Amino acid sequence: MRDAMTLAFTMLGGGMAAILILMLVAKLTGRVNVEEKQGRKPVYNIQAEVKGKRTLVEADPENPNIPKTRYFLTFHKRDGIRLEMEVPGEDYGLAAEGDEGILVYSKGDEFIVFKRT
After folding, report:
1. pLDDT number for residue 89
2. Are 70 and 85 in contact (CB under 8 A)?
């Protein structure tokens, strides 16, 4: 009985590790595809300041019972123009109003990265 439980836990652990590795590979592959697509568009690097943060919670189209959160940052460019861009949750969490840095985005106001200075 003990050997069967040990075998079951070993198989479960191996299965979980395989799933985590596959998720990591999918995430990295997705980033490469985004970078390739953005590589064909003009990229802008401008001095900007974070002026605002907001979230939008809505139903996920694939699963309406699970809410999906979208994250937005508002940037103020030196020329006085404000841009609101949807950003990944990681970038939203790291940003604070008043942060200054270099905003990198592509044509169509697609956020790439915000590098604090």
Report:
1. 97
2. no
- Sorted by sequence, the CB contacts under 8 Å of residue 104 that are 6+ apart come out as 43, 44, 45, 112, 113, 114, 115
Cβ neighbours around 83 below 10 Å, total: 16
What is the per-residue pLDDT for 27? Answer: 66
Start-to-end CA distance of the chain, whole Å, equals 60
Identity of residue 60? D
Rounded to whole angstroms, what are the CA distances from 39 to 67, 73, 115? 32, 22, 18
Name, in order, each residue with C-beta under 8 angstroms of 89's C-beta and a sequence gap of 6 or more. Answer: 69, 71
pTM for the complete prediction? 0.63
Residues of the chain with pLDDT under 70: 1-39
Residue 40's pLDDT is what? 73
Under DSSP, the state recorded for 88 is: -
- What pLDDT score does 55 carry? 98
The strand pairing partners of 26, in sequence order, are: none
| 16's tokens | 């979980």
